Amino acid sequence: GAVVSQHPSWVICKSGTSVKIECRSLDFQATTMFWYRQFPKQSLMLMATSNEGSKATYEQGVEKDKFLINHASLTLSTLTVTSAHPEDSSFYICSALAGLAGVNEQFFGPGTRLTVL
Amino acid sequence: RKEVEQDPGPFNVPEGATVAFNCTYSNSASQSFFWYRQDCRKEPKLLMSVYSSGNEDGRFTAQLNRASQYISLLIRDSKLSDSATYLCVVQTSGTYKYIFGTGTRLKVLA
């Protein structure tokens, strides 16, 4: 159990376009999901906390108007990178919070590799 | 100062060796601690949670020292398949956020 999927697994786009990434919890409901970004040879950096039915909470330095997050259902959160630029090229990973056996743990999706030309 | 600090390595060790990684955290309110493993271009996968009493899972042993605010991971009898980046993760009390360390790269050599 506790499987999280992401789609697409990779995407290449032109500068100035918008890209939507989906994160789904496949076998459990997740009121809270997280979005991370990982640049080469660096660790995962939390971008925002996505809460079902309410606005996302963004970490300091992350532009909420550039990285739009929608968590419209208990199994789906989407991240839209608007007007993408080459510096947005990165590995984007989502996680979903699941409470199993009384422990709240994050389960990670396989990631989406974004390349902006 | 970073919230979670690790030596980036790489640690190059021969098969069969024992290797230890340390991780320090700055927030004394941190509540939960984990070691994750990340292979190149993949998502992180949970290796083990870390408890105050210490815990062992096969060749892997994790320890937590709250007084000194550090966590350790010991790998015994290293295998080639252990080659990966090991990420120290800290979760602060009252939130579900994970703070990741920069990771320590391990290369086990034949």
Task: Name the descriptors.
A: 117 residues, mainly beta, four-stranded antiparallel beta sheet, B: 110 residues, six-stranded mixed beta sheet, five-stranded antiparallel beta sheet, globular
Could you tell me how far the N terminus lies from the C terminus of chain B, measured between alpha carbons in angstroms? Answer: 37 Å
Strand content of chain B: over 45%
Q: What's the shape of chain B?
A: globular
Structural class of chain B: mainly beta
Largest beta-sheet details of chain A: 7 strands, mixed
Largest sheet features of chain B: 6 strands, mixed
The number of helical segments of chain A is 0
Order of helices and strands of chain A: EEEEEEEEEEE
Q: Largest contact between protein chains?
A: A-B, 21 and 15 residues
Straight-line distance between termini of chain A: 37 Å
Helix content of chain B: under 10%
Can you offer a commentary on this structure?
- The complex is a heterodimer of chains A (117) and B (110).
- Chain A is built from no helices and 11 strands.
- Chain A is an all-beta fold and 117 residues long.
- The termini of chain A are far apart.
- The model of chain A has no long low-confidence stretch (mean pLDDT 92).
- Chain B has 110 residues and is mainly beta.
- Helix content of chain B is 0%, strand content 56%.
- Chain B has no helices and 11 strands.
- In chain B, the strands form 2 sheets. In chain B, strands 2, 4, 5, 9, 10 and 11 form a 6-stranded mixed β-sheet that branches. In chain B, strands 1-3-8-7-6 form a 5-stranded antiparallel β-sheet, with no helix packed on it.
- In chain B, a hairpin with a 4-residue loop joins strand 7 and strand 8.
- The A-B interface holds A 32, 34, 36, 42-46, 49, 91, 93, 95, 97, 104-106, 108-111, 113 and B 41-46, 87, 96-103.
